[in-house]
Design goal:
This protein is mostly helical. It has helices at 3-10, 22-38, 42-67, 77-86, 94-110, 115-121, 124-150. It has 7 helices and no strands. α2 packs across α4 (77-86) and α6 (115-121) packs antiparallel against α7.
């Protein structure tokens, strides 16, 4: 694979090169993939998500090494995987995805524990990726509670 291939994947097919808010742009790219994952049987959905985490860590690590930086801002594959974690196995309705998007961006920016610690202390691709996975888990928790409280609005 060429360096351009790793950069293309890590940048979310170029979304990470957006001049403003590249993390938000990368998360937007993740939305149709999340919808597609939600169409799969739950076991296959979780299997693909489970495979995506180490694969994304490897791609982020490779891209960061090519760039010579710890966590370049143009790498947004971590935001994509974090968003997929955030909305995993939820009904792929527009309101659910929109709420997941907003909450994920909030938690990705605020970095509640352990996301902040992971961001500061883990090296390489795992350090780039796992703080976003932690933000995705926080999002998933809050979104699950909101959907449970909303009853029919959340659609179960």
């Amino acid at each position: 694979m060429t360096p351009g291939f790793w950069r293309l994947l890590a940048s979310g097919f170029g979304a990470g090169r957006a001049p403003v808010a590249p993390g938000t742009a990368g998360t937007l790219v993740a939305v149709p993939f999340a919808w597609g994952l939600a169409q799969l049987p739950p076991v296959l959905h979780l299997l693909l998500l489970g495979l995506a985490v180490p694969a994304a860590a490897a791609v982020c690590d490779r891209a960061a090494r090519l760039d010579g930086s710890k966590d370049p801002g143009w790498i947004v594959l971590d935001e994509m995987v974090g968003f997929w974690v955030a909305v995993a196995l939820l009904p792929p309705r527009p309101m659910t995805l929109a709420a997941g998007f907003a909450l994920f961006r909030l938690f990705d920016i605020v970095k509640p524990p352990p996301a902040g610690w992971i961001d500061r202390n883990l090296p390489g691709g795992w350090g780039i990726l796992l703080d976003d996975v932690a933000a995705g888990l926080w999002t998933r928790l809050v979104l699950g509670v909101l959907l449970w409280l909303s009853g029919p609005w959340g659609g179960g």
